[in-house]
Amino acid sequence: MRFLAAQHLRTRADFDRPRREGFRADCGAFIMRIYPPREGAPAGQRRLGVIASRKVGNAVKRNRAKRLMREIFRLNQECLPPACDILIIIRSQFDQLTFAELQERYLRTAKKCRHP
Questions:
Q1: Which of 87, 107, 2 is nearest to 36 (CA)?
Q2: Residues 24, 26, 32, 35: what is their CA dihedral angle, to the nearest 10 degrees?
Q3: How many CA atoms lie within 13 A of 69 on its CB side?
Q4: Is residue 112 within a helix (H) or strand (E), and if so which, with residue range?
Q5: The whole model's pTM is what?
Q6: Per-residue model confidence as pLDDT tens for the chain (116 residues)
Q7: How far apart are CA 108 and CA 94, in angstroms?
Q8: Residue closest to 86 by CA, chosen among 40, 45, 43
Q9: Strand, helix or coil at 22?
């Protein structure tokens, strides 16, 4: 289970689609937006984008938060609908939770999104 380059949201349009039209779930330390399956996407290809503003903290905290969310995504890709776009917006309370708590919230939200 790798996090491939093709699984990254790259362009502004890629980030805007889930932000505007995606299913929104508030997880406390982060907001998860899931855009439904894309047409013409490779089978099962899920893409992830992570946003961490300066409110989260300095560059070290922001980068750590993004690394943790990418790792959680990498480990639990199958829990999400196939060929969807996921946008995670990190909040300032992020560093108050452990990796296990973050992963549990992520999985709970992914389960809701898979079977709305």
A1: 87
A2: -10
A3: 28
A4: helix 99-114
A5: 0.86
A6: 677 778 889 889 888 888 888 888 888 899 999 888 767 666 668 899 999 999 999 999 999 999 999 999 999 888 888 888 899 999 999 999 999 999 999 999 888 776 44
A7: 17
A8: 45
A9: coil
Tokens, residue 16:
């805007």
Torsion sign over Cα 83, 89, 93, 99 = positive
For CA atoms 98, 85, 82, 70, the dihedral sign is negative
The structure tokens listed for 108 are: 């709970």
* Topology of the domain comprising 5-114: Ribosomal Protein S5; domain 2 (3.30.230)
> CA separation (Å) from 1 to 40, 62, 116?
22, 24, 26
Element containing residue 111 per DSSP (H, E) = helix 99-114
CA diameter of the chain: 39
